[in-house]
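hey team, just a heads up i'm posting the complex here instead of the shared drive bc the drive is being weird again. everything in one block, sequence lines first with there labels, then the predicted structure for the whole assembly after. its two chains so it's a bit long, scroll down
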Amino acid sequence: MNKVVTVNLNGTAYQLEESGYDALRAYLDEAAAKLAGNPDRDEIMSDIEQAVADKLRTLLGPYKNVAATAQVQAIIAEMGPVEAGAEMPPNEPPPREKAGGAGGAGATGNAQSTVPPEAAKRLYRLYDGAMICGVCNGIAAYFNLDPTIIRLVFVIAGMLTGGIGLVAYIIMAVVVPAAGTAAEKEAARGATNWTAQEFIRRARAGYYEGMKGFPDREAQRAWKRKFREDMRDWRRSFRWQTRWGGCAGQSHWHSYWAEHPFMETGWGIALPFLTLFNAVLAIGFIIAVISLLTNGTLIGQTPPAGMPVWLTLVLLLLAYNFIVWPIKAARHVFYRHGICGARPGPRVFVSLWDTFVWIAFVCVLLWLALHHLPQVQEAVRNIPAVFHDAKEGINDWWTHH
Amino acid sequence: MILDDKFAPIRKGLLEFILLKIIAVEKVYAADILKQLSSTEFATQEGTLYPLLSKMRREELLDYDWKESEAGPPRKYYELTAKGRAQLKETSEYWQKINETVKQFSQK
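-- predicted structure starts here --
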């Protein structure tokens, strides 16, 4: 519970949390002190109060009427320290101006206390600038990346994995809440100054710094060429090895089955169970990803502190693929015709049986979820709204391009 | 960025010229100016802009009048005075000259 202070900013009343009020008071006092001796002091002060009031008004919107401390601090950071203009003594180093990036939250005096604290981040869908339902936009805001990159990742992953990207998108469109209020939009972006783009920029700068260390341009070029060749060789040999390993395994199993025909029947019966196992793993994986993105826990477990969410996500994906790979490989070997000279067999019945078991399993799971999980019921009720939003989004995009 | 720091004083000095240019185009209010600047190297905060605007007004380079806005209280719309226009012309020419000088050195 926080005490609320009502302030009069240039004739309009606003309510601030007490510590937010203190921060604003300190900022205005400092501004007034900096402007001491300036003939326009009163006018500049009223301009500044008006600007704070405008920002508060857009922030608060029609439903909220108390500004939280973090919001007031964010406004102060956005305003920047007041400079005395031409009257500034020349020997004082000029305060860094905010130029482009997200830095420059104020450098001098008690502006230090006004740097906004790291606000809690949450994953939201963001409609501002969204293309469909704002899923990619929200993820991009969460990781401070360009939404186009996330969209590309979704599309490419969707094509490589045969539709998982699309399914993941639909699930997230249903499950992840949309950011409605200004506070939620702020939480979707977080108030951190440390952006991924900044990180990439620094890494790149470091890379070029390293390149400068080379004695001359020729050596630099030679090093680049060698690096590229190494990478190409490595890729080629990796591809060759995996393909060769796959072929060898396949022909091995085919010759084995040829000698032991009863084993083939055994596999035919076992395969659907592998499929079931695969399905359970896939569902577990999706649940884990959702729980990680929505409340930062991994099915009840918190990932080690200091580990960024994206790293956890990548590790989870790797672990999932690692577990699932043998199952996939087994099914692949069984279904596909031999590409390395092994004898293809008539396995129509087994594939049919496998597919049937899979569909039945999915149906049972869906039925169970619909009848026993309130979240899923909620999500299903939301589906029409989500598709409506999507339609609106596409319409909007269509008419504006 | 090293260049960013190096050129901070130059950007600071040019800000007044940029403001003259922006205000010469049409009558604007402060938030509008900040928005136009925000995506450029001259991104500025209120704490810098307001003192500079009032200094320019005191030097009679610009003037403002109050206008009602659809949302909220009336706003100050700034416009250039005759003196402001003269200064803009002068500064533009001077800036042109500096640019040519800089170019001339790189030609050899």
